[in-house]
Amino acid sequence: MNVHEAQTTRVVTLRKLLSPKECGAILSLAQEVERTDDEATLRFQNDVQLSQRGNWKTVYVHSGEAFHRQLPEIHDKLRAAIESADASEGWSLLTPPKKTATEAAGGGRGDICVRTAEVHEVLVGGTLPEPKHYDAGSLITIDVMLSQNGEFDGGVFRTLELQDDGCSEAFLEFPEFSTGDAMVFVSHKYHGVAPVSRGVRRVCVVEFWNGEERSCPHRCKRRAGKCPYRRPAREAEESEAGAARQPPLRVAGAGGAAAAPPTWVPKQYTGADDIKARQAEAKKTLRLKALKSYLGDRSATSDSEEEEEEHAAGD
Ligand SMILES: [Zn+2]
Fold this sequence. Notes:
- The protein is an alpha+beta fold.
- The protein has helices at about 5, 20-35, 65-70, 70-90, 100-105, 230-240, 270-295, and strands at about 10-15, 40-45, 55-60, 110-120, 140-145, 150-155, 155-160, 170-175, 180-185, 190-195, 195-200, 200-210.
- Zinc ion binds near residues 214, 216, 218, 222 and 227.
């Protein structure tokens, strides 16, 4: 749906879509991912370019397929919610479910998958201020409130709506957004979050798109196939040793026999020990890379540019 048309759609509010227990499970997963996966957390207050977000932290809980693997019932519930809204609102954004061999074996349904599943933690001053922010490239976005009632002030979800005069625009606020409540909306609809004035606002945001389910720790732009997102540690390793001499990556469930392709390999959700070992290795290679760069060894510097555009991610 084009951006202009998307503005004519309305936000669907679903009260108590998730139970307090389910909200707690998402928060626990976010904590686990943040603790064990350095790359899956984006802290906006540390980034000059994105500083207008203020005190805003995003944890990509779909990283390493964590969201789908750890919380399959919640994944299915959110998916059912967006399908229901798509049908009842007449958006017709989702292709009809296809019955393929993959689906029969328990795989994805058709071409609509999770692009990104994020937990946002917003502290005082944190805001998504751009009036015309939208989730470019996705189809339907669902936000679920995870904070308990009274845990924060401000931070009201809002959309930008064309007024009856046909030319002026004004914010429409959604102050009644309680624990477990969900808002489903067309991803291309303008939306934002007013500044948080007290406490901590936590929401889960899942964007569905016409593409493969992603497991890379960012808001991906590659709809199918290998993601061009490259972890800094992997770049350093390749620069140091050359892709051909990489040790095989251990892939869970594959008996450790899988060879490592030279580019991004979707991370399997492994134990904390394994991740900590990788992080230690990554820090070591990054230090070496920095030192070589300082000494003028150009070969130690990767020429692949970061392609993702994080600021497109939103509430
Ligand atoms: Zn990606």
